[in-house]
Please model this.
Amino acid sequence: PAKAQAPAAASLEGALRSRSARGTWGEVELARILEASGMMAHVDFAEQRSIASLTQGRGLGAGSASTDRGRPDVTIHLPGQGFLALDAKAPMDAYLRACGIEDSGEEAEARRRTELAAHAKALRSHVEALASRDYARALGSSPELVILFVPSEAALSAALRSDAALLDDAMARGVALCSPVTLLAVARTCATAWARTTINEQADQVIALGRDLYERLGVVAGHMDNLGKNLAKSVDFYNKAVSSMETRLLSRARAVTALESASKKPMTATDIDPDAAQVRAFTKPELTGR
Model:
């Protein structure tokens, strides 16, 4: 298996001879994967931001020395003001040395196994160091997990073959070992969570607008109901006035026949259609309550 990995490792070794170069490569790969998942830099995730600046104004981790020193390589913003810290400085010196052994034979295989065991040990030591920083507690409102990104599937696989308990022990310490493929799945999950959160927030806004509209309809319906009652009263008063004029006033006016001939303006009234004068009542169950 190690021989099959040699060509890929040789190309990496030429470009990644220094630890700073490997760190830069890991950070570039990390940002590229996050962007491939649909996230945007400075919006969905931040690079090289201190914990103090991330939690500023939230009262988290104040006065903590680890907070002052903490600066994850990348921090993913999570719904609910949470964060997920990612580290991209996985050790690979021993792995590259192991893949650089091109000889065959038992002695070469023994040297290769020794280097791969050293690679797994270095990765375990980095897990312990990363767990001691306790990014989850310092960031607050965050998963009790920090992601250690290993930018090579082969390098992570070799370490897990050499130390079978490494993955479980790392998870027990709150550190998740992620290869590029695994990280892409995690990032897609975070991006989906943001999309679902946005949909839920928009749904809440629609519900709030609908509730407000319904309440306003109730207010207008109340005004219309009062207007209808007042119109019905006006019609009733009008009918009483007409009845009183025809039965009481006109009977007296007929006794004075001279008034009609002396009046310059005839005493006439416009004919009103009884059907047109009716007040229409609400009939829909939302308004009548029936």
Remarks:
- Residues 2-197 form one domain.
- The first strand starts at residue 45 and ends at 47.
